[in-house]
Amino acid sequence: MADSFDVIVIGGGPAGYPAAIRAGQNKLSVACIDQWRNRDGSYAFGGTCLNAGCIPSKALLESSELYVRAREEFAAHGIKVADVGFDVAQMQKRKAGIVKTSTQGITALFKASGVTALQGHGKLLPGRRVQFTAADGTQRELTAKHVILASGSAPAELKVAPFKAPHIIDSWGALDLPSVPKRLGVIGAGVIGLELGSVWRRLGSEVTVLEALPDFLAIADQQLAKEAARHFKKQGLDIRLGAKVSAAKVSGDAVEVSYEDAQGTHSLTVDRLIVAAGRRPFTADLLADGTGVTLDDRGFIQVDEHCRTAAEGVWAVGDCVRGPMLAHKGKEEGVMVADLIAGHYGEVNYKAIPSVIYTAPEIAWVGLTEEQVKSSGRPYKVGVFPFLASGRARAMEQAQGFAKIIAAQDDDEILGVHIIGPMAGELIAEAVLAMEFSASSEDLQRTIHAHPTLSEALHEAALAADKRAIDSINR
Ligand code: FAD
Ligand code: NAD
Fold it and tell me: What is the pLDDT averaged over residues 422-436?
């Protein structure tokens, strides 16, 4: 095997592996080094997303949601199912199978695009040299014209609630629970808290979510956040806002949690506690002295808008750099960098990155919230269409939530789209495309949407922005 490459990628998650594949497609010689090891000690490409994040969480969300629908919705459809039950071991087995197929797929994709796959640890040395340490401890020095750092992120640990498996666990532990805890505590009502809290709530856990901030889903449009809070409450998720955890300790087979809110100090006893209080960039033993790569005060690798670090020929992408910690954001950055290295055009439109929370109802948005538009001072108009008025949503027994469009009053440009409802994560793609093309709400109004589809909700929301909705009352 060669010791010198055009490109070496350190990290084979959703930011690193697409960078390597695109570099291969661009006819560059490329190696991708990844150190991810599963609990059985086996190596696997795909990083957090495929092994312990996006994919396994969506597998369990799907299984648990189907269980709830069979239990609560089938009767309305006239379907009689006796004794609806579930088998956590089978759910976990299915999840593991999906993860394995996905991660093995990367190895096949690497082969097809000529990427040299190296499983082990990578460390950047000065002068674009990379020290590779294999599983057996043997070391080799590799050199590259360009190095792409894609080392990802790790769960943030709280001093007041240090991880202590199997009782105080991170999201990976929460995805691997072998049975349903009777009482489940979650620190953080962010994306992970809501998704994993939903999985175990649907399967019967009493779930209490402690969120330090006073507002629910503060990053989202607040009309959408209010609607979401209403649904989660109805589902039995006990979300306590303004709750600052001061201590959590394992006592016997339970966890004693203390927290403070405006009313004073409280205690809570749970069987398992998930800490989902954000993630931090992961750069442990990644950079030798003298590489010239710099970190900011929160530990992110510093990059410009094209993901160039301060060191010539060294780039960084994904969760280890600024911006939302999302797989698709990392993927676009990885591909952009591999194209720029090959002398092609490359750019990431950071204003049109969709966010999706895979709860039920699903939540998705792109662009600015109404609060952000209001504070910008730009006059705007809003169109909202409830899924209750969608024939398709009613036929699906999923007529909850709404689609909302915010457009500029002056030139009608779409500034933000916020959807809570069935398949919101799929529906948002149309809004992302519209914003990518700087579409106006009139462009959406004049676009024919098939009937009856959920996507008509977006069409009608665009019409509602000009009080021209057909299928709902204009307010
Ligand atoms: P990672 O996926 O963390 O990959 C980095 C890789 O680099 C890892 O394999 C790591 O082992 C390896 N590495 C690090 N240092 C070295 C080194 N020195 N040498 C060799 N290898 C190294 N995002 C979404 O967009 N949608 C979702 O639905 C979603 N769901 C999530 C659910 C959960 C429970 C979690 C935890 C996260 C979820 N995310 C989701 C976030 C998503 O997983 C991350 O944004 C994404 O994985 C970041 O990709 P990355 O390639 O930058 O980093
Ligand atoms: P997050 O930032 O989404 O939420 C963390 C929450 O914890 C915040 O609301 C924060 O206020 C709260 N918090 C922080 N410290 C606390 C404390 N001491 N006590 C109580 N609450 C506290 O982070 P996350 O949910 O851990 O997810 C990590 C990252 O993974 C996110 O950036 C997210 O984008 C990504 N992710 C994405 C998806 C998705 O796209 N569907 C799913 C899961 C994770």
Answer: 98
Those residues with Cβ within 8 angstroms of residue 190's Cβ, 6 or more apart along the chain or in another chain = 276, 277, 278
Q: How far is the CA of 49 from the centre of ligand 1 (A)?
A: 5
pLDDT in tens, 240-267: 999 999 999 999 999 999 999 999 999 9
As a whole number, mean pLDDT of residues 193-198 equals: 98
Ligand 2: which residue has its CA nearest to atom 3? 190
> 147, 10 in Cβ contact below 8 A?
yes
Residue 84 C-beta-side C-alpha neighbours within 13 Å: 18
| Residue of minimum CA distance from atom 2 in ligand 2 | 278
| Matching fold, domains 4-155+280-348 and 168-277 | yes
Q: How confident is the model at residue 475 (pLDDT cuts 50, 70, 90)?
A: confident
Every domain of the chain and the residues it spans: 4-155+280-348, 168-277, 353-465
**Which of the listed CATH numbers 3.10.20.340, 3.30.980.10, 2.30.30.230, 3.50.50.60 matches domain 4-155+280-348?**
3.50.50.60
Q: Residue 413 C-alpha to ligand 2 middle, in angstroms?
A: 31
* Residue 365 beta carbon below 6 angstroms from any ligand 2 atom: no
Q: pTM for this one?
A: 0.97
Q: What angle do CA 180, 185, 191 make, to 5 degrees?
A: 95
